[in-house]
Design brief:
Helix content of chain A: 25-40%
Largest sheet of chain C: 6 strands, mixed
Chains: A alpha+beta, B alpha+beta, C alpha/beta
Number of domains of chain A: 4
CATH class of the largest domain in chain A: Alpha Beta
Number of strands of chain C: 6
Distance between the termini of chain A: 54 Å
Number of domains of chain C: 1
Structural class of chain A: alpha+beta
Largest interface: A-C, 42 and 41 residues
Low-confidence stretches of chain A: none
Radius of gyration of chain A: 23 Å
Number of helices of chain A: 17
Largest sheet of chain A: 5 strands, antiparallel
Helix content of chain C: 10-25%
Mean pLDDT of chain C: 90
Number of helices of chain C: 5
Oligomer: heterotrimer
Structural class of chain C: alpha/beta
Shape of chain C: globular
CATH topology of chain C: TIM Barrel
Strand content of chain C: 5-15%
Strand content of chain A: 15-25%
CATH superfamily of the largest domain in chain A: Sulfite Reductase Hemoprotein, domain 1
CATH class of chain C: Alpha Beta
Strand order of the largest sheet of chain A: 1-2-5-4-13
Radius of gyration of chain C: 16 Å
Number of strands of chain A: 20
Mean pLDDT of chain A: 97
Shape of chain A: globular
CATH topology of the largest domain in chain A: Sulfite Reductase Hemoprotein, domain 1
Chain lengths: 544, 99, 163
Amino acid sequence: MYKYDHYDQAMVDARVEEFRDQVRRRIEGHLTEDQFKSLRLMNGLYLQLHAYMLRVAVPYGTLSSAQMRALADIADKYDRGYGHFTTRQNIQYNWIKLEEAPDILADLAKVEMHAIQTSGNCIRNISSDQYAGAAADEEVDPRPYAELLRQWSTFHPEFLTLPRKFKICVIASEQDRAAMRLHDIGIRILRNEAGELGARFYVGGGMGRTPMIAPVIRDFVPLDQLITYSEACLRVYNRYGRRDNKFKARIKILVHEMGADEYTRQVEEEFAHLLSQGIEPPTAELERIRTYFQDPAFEHGALDALDRSDPDFALWVDRNTMAHKQAGYINATISLKPVGGIPGDASADQMRLMADLAERYSFDELRVTHAQNIVLPHVRKADLYEVWKQLDQAGLGTANIDQIDDIIACPGLDYCSLANARSIPVAQKISQRFAAGGKADALGELKLKISGCINACGHHHAGHIGILGVDRKGKENYQLLLGGSEAEDTSLGKITGPGFDEDGIVDAIERATDVYLRERGEGERFLDTYRRIGMEPFKEAIYG
Amino acid sequence: MKILTGNDLKSGAVVWWDGRGWSLHVEDAVDAGDDADTIMAREEAARRVNVPYAIDGERSAEGRVRPAHIKDRIRALGPTVRPDLTLKPADPEAGNWVI
Amino acid sequence: MAEVLPLPSEGAGSGDHVQFRFRDDEPLMDPAVTVDAFIDQTNATAVRVEPGDDARKLLPHLGRIGLVEVNFPAFTDGRGYSVARILREAGYAGELRAVGDVLIDQLSQMKRCGFDAFAPDKPLDETDAKAAFDRWPHVYQPAADARVPIWNLRHGRNQEQNG
């Protein structure tokens, strides 16, 4: 994985000192809260419902064991012994003190980490496929391009005060495991007919209160123009994105109102101009970055079979692993969704165990998934049983990836000052209801996502089943959506009808899944059945 | 009644106006009445509180103050899903008071 | 950073107090007019760009511009950064002045985008401003200033880009 050189380290160290100085000026009263807010947000520091919250960047979701241990130490030393992994592949802490925040950033810098641009109206942490560099189906490892974009976007002087936040995702396989088309810019690395690698640009996707699927604005950008093209996309947005209304300020609204064709025309014009400016990094830089993402020293001829004689282990293998590009190896996903637990939360001790397992069994690497789980990307099949046993003993052996109880949930009203309703208790009740009696297993792949407000941090638009929490006359109320998908068959869910209270929504979901079990055809997932038979049968069962 | 809340600037802790200063405990909150804006402007300028705002409060039958809206009740107690991290970790009834 | 922070210059420009200026020439004393007025008045030499203005309208007239003021009515409106870069990319070499809600923590990014004079609504603390101008030991990406990006330094390309 990528390692800092003295330049990267100097930049992160300078950032720590800058923030220390900003915190001092705030505490001494030289900065108003309004002025300080935009500065702290660009260091990931929010003022949340109970305290300050710090969001730490995990670039393209990749972590070393040492980094995961440092995250555990921060949880113990500065927080309350746990952290929350997010849908943007980051981690956040809920109980941070402002006066300690600069010291936390200094601790992070020691392990080549930071909180730079994890919030604020700027280019955020670049996200990617959690199996990058390990998936059997990818064209190439997308992370070198994500790293190049990370460096380009870090402290980019023109784009630190955009109309609104800006999220970029880079993937390199047909299968989309990163909700690529629901980003402000989604980039897919692929080959053209001549066999050359390039980047397809999708611009103007997003969730929030106005969900949109990003249209393609350019089929193929040569990789030695990747940065220049990105700069053109951003400049058109910075100049013309709406600033009169916060809720219409995302690039999706600009692309929608201007039309994808006109936006593309303007980008192409800006691109042609910028090509003359020579802003693209030397190709040697991409080569340099690529050397950090070479394959680890895989054992060739490693045993490619698994002993499935332990039925619990066999079930976990079926649910939680994914094919690896190297024979004899496998991607193992650690579920952070125990039955009745808090989706995405991990204790400091669990983080340390995951770090130890990665060090011993996964070439020192871990990944954070957008579904709020952790991946050990390079596990030898011969070691998998031992890995599972250790996970299981620590309460990390839940076998439920992509099932109805592998729920994405935002922190909701339990933690978030923007939320209208709690998300976590609903997730807990659903996972308890469906885990009981093996119903979750019977349902197969069924992605359920919960947001506690219209901002959609819990991706409810993109759930096969989505839940949106709203405030109805001071009471929590939950709307039900069906038919969304964040994968390569991207679609947006539709609301079934009137909302429910906390217990009502769990019942409604059970009725919807009963329709699926009754109607499903051979090999159909919930989503497939819904797409085939439409909303009506579900509505009848839910409200009838 | 109007009660005032905000966060401590340095620690971020949720605080409530108790008539003389800022308390961690909502039970100490007092009715700020018509003085709410004056108090908040003065206290924020002195950085004794960060981002204060006034909310509706109500008094229970036993005379205890609590915020009228669920969001502020959760602020007052802590996350409902981690009773161990609330201000009343030993009180099994604390959650009922919130919801 | 080799720059030395100049002393605040007095009474420069068209009514805004220039607190920091990184130029050796004499400040222009002409009043700055709006972009539309500037295009109509062929004798105007100073122009004031507001956030919604299209800076590219000025490109045919760069030869007669001695001062561009870019207004930041609120520090949260970042359109002025693109204005500055567009003018510098087109070869504008005159004074480019940031005016309005200009704050300490935006100085270094403004300078990178090509601003070489700063007239904040409220005077800034000189020590904190100097620290802000000198904050970054390196830069990752090219902009309108002369700094060499890290990705060139790494490969022994130490010459300035663009200028």
